[in-house]
Amino acid sequence: NHNCTTIDDLYNATFLQKILLSATLSLDVEDLHEWRLRYPRLFKAVKNDVVVENESNLNNVIIPSSLRIEYIICDSKFKPLATHERIESRESWKKILIFVNSKMASYRLALLLKVLSAGKYQVEELSSNLFGNRRQKVLASSL
Hints:
The protein is mainly α and 143 residues long. The chain has helices spanning 7-13, 29-33, 79-89, 103-117, 132-142. It has five helices and no strands.
């Protein structure tokens, strides 16, 4: 548009299509308001037969239908070993996403699973610790 004099004019004059995909997208409408979506639509995958001890966390995220949620209930100190055991017992699993609560937890879990796997399965960390080409390579190898 040649009548625009500022970036804000250009931004407000065009209606860009924005598609947000996230395994952990917040349901907070205030957060989504920042995206300036013209006609926002929310699609939420729901699985009725999932039994969860603490459902408050499940209500805060949107889970794509292509993902299956599994919970491991154990003492915190055994979580990495229980995760490794679950991966080892599921030969049919080809690709696995594990969400953790921090960059450090992501790094530590990836490092430990690499050692425990002894090459039986590939482990990659995807977090903001990775930059540029390295992040793209990890994404490309996991698709």
